[in-house]
Amino acid sequence: MKQQDPNSLLVKATLLLASTLTIMAGATIAPSLPAIRDYFKDVSNVDYWTRLILTVPALFIAIGAPFVGTFIDRFGRKFLLAFAVLLYGLAGSSGFILNSIGLILFGRVLLGLSVAGIMTTATTLIADYYTGAARAQFLGLQAAFMGLGGVLFLSFGGVLADLNWRLPFLIYLVAWLILPLVVFVLPEPQRDYNAAASTQSTMPSNSEQLPWALLLTIYAIALITQIVFYLIPTQLPFYLQQLINAKAAQSGLAIALTTLATSISALGYPHLKKKFSFNAIYAIAFGLMGIGYSIISLVGSYELILIGLAIGGLGIGLLMPNMNVCLTTIVPATARGRVLGGLTTSLFLGQFISPVLSQPLSQQVGIGTTYGWAAGLMLIMSAIAVIVVWRGD
């Protein structure tokens, strides 16, 4: 199998399949959380450690992504992506056989490092291969496939979790089916990495060219929205169990519905971008998230919660392509890996922080009220974005 032209269907399919492994990687085992908690009930602070199993990958994605970005800007993209996909399958599936919560956490640390490599490198390759409208369209498609991966993995994970809490860990082995495509299909972009390394050695002059105020604003948006988004996989299984005594499959289906909604809105992103500015799309996204989370906080039935999750998911699905398109448009190619690595760090640091903030809050005021406060934050951010648009972007 020879390397293909970047515009070939096989290259595009490989990038999209690799992208399915990323944004919801940690949440694949979310439906298993109540059963994992019960299995390790004799462990001190088991509620905390159980949620950490879900979110510790996000911390190490956040830690690893800047190093990944620097590496691929210096030495190239493909080798690191292949290694990350290999490690993803090994580390992700380790929970199937491990019988210590500490060792399971270590496996999740390695999983996080692998996702840092996959997400940063795959998005950078898309920016390398495509430009203009083609890039915006493909980044929207990438976000849709990230959501689709969440739908498949979470739905299947919920069904498997009802059989045994260990079985969802096997889902991570799907990465090894994608590995041959990464190795034999993807072309290495034709760039002078020695020149890129030289640029790195003169970082001050290069960094002056970067729009740091805009970068930091986008990173802050990524951090805050992921804190809010991850209330769904970390708190929803417990909230549904509290409200309706939901089974793992019902929780998995509910979380998967959110990611399905993200896929739908991400597919529509290129058309939306033709009509609206980046800030206007942020206003729409924050508003949808605020409405969706308000519904979740106020209703008591499974069906109405699903409606809230779907509306919130539509908003979440617009954020990823909007941030990626903006960043890849405004930064030079020699800094692309580092800048996208910074975005990956912000996204997954938000995922890690989410239960750290929400768990004590939900214990104090209840999970429903926590969703309500998150809704209020998103509506405030939407109002701010509307004001920015009204004043002329």
Question: How does this structure look, described?
Answer:
With 393 residues, this protein is mainly alpha-helical. The chain has a single domain, classed as Up-down Bundle (Growth Hormone, Chain: A), CATH 1.20.1250.20. Helices cover 80% and strands 0% of the residues. The protein contains 16 helices and no strands. The protein has helices spanning 9-19, 33-39, 46-75, 78-93, 101-129, 132-163, 175-184, 193-201, 203-207, 212-229, 231-244, 248-275, 278-298, 302-330, 336-365, 367-390. Helix 13 packs antiparallel against helix 14 (302-330). It is globular. It starts with 8 loop residues before the first helix and ends with a helix.
